[in-house]
Amino acid sequence: MIDTDIYEGHTKGKWVVLSGSVYLVTPLIVEQNWIADKVTPIARMDRDTNHTTPVERDRNARLIADAPLLLEEVNGLLAEIRQLNNIIGTFDDFMCNNWTPANVHSLWNELLTKEEEE
């Protein structure tokens, strides 16, 4: 499992990639009642003290550098989810096809008998 705490404090917002560079997209109010997107290069954000701190820049770099590792983790988790869905589906099919109220009642009585014996 990946320790995601090392990414805490990264620059929040929508990141985009244009021509191989990473940019932050933020709303920019151009006129009254009209908003456009302002695109700021992540790599140059350190020049503008209003945007990032040294900690944010470090976390941004870690997040970008670890993207392949994070993708691998996501793919592993998705595989586990698919496997669990298959197990649940199989169990669900079994329950629908094999369990009748009489079977459930019989199993319940069996469990109660065992409980009384203990």
Which short descriptors sum up this protein?
single chain; 118 residues; alpha+beta; 3-stranded antiparallel sheet
Number of domains: 1
Instruction: Identify the strand order in the major beta sheet.
Output: 1-2-3
How would you state the average pLDDT, rounded? 75
Q: Which bin fits the share of residues in helices?
A: 40-55%
Distance between the termini: 42 Å
Structural class: alpha+beta
Describe this structure in words.
It is elongated, with a radius of gyration of 27 Å. It has a three-stranded antiparallel β-sheet, with no helix packed on it. It has one domain. About 6% of the residues have low confidence. The two termini are 42 Å apart. The chain has 118 residues and is an alpha+beta fold. The longest helix has 32 residues. The protein is 52% helix and 20% strand. A hairpin with a 2-residue loop joins strand 2 and strand 3.
Please outline what is shown here.
This protein has 118 residues and is an alpha+beta fold. The protein is 52% helix and 20% strand. It has one domain (4-117).
Per-chain topology:
Layout: E1 14-18, E2 21-31, E3 34-41, H1 54-65, H2 67-98, H3 101-117
Antiparallel strand pairs: 1-2, 2-3
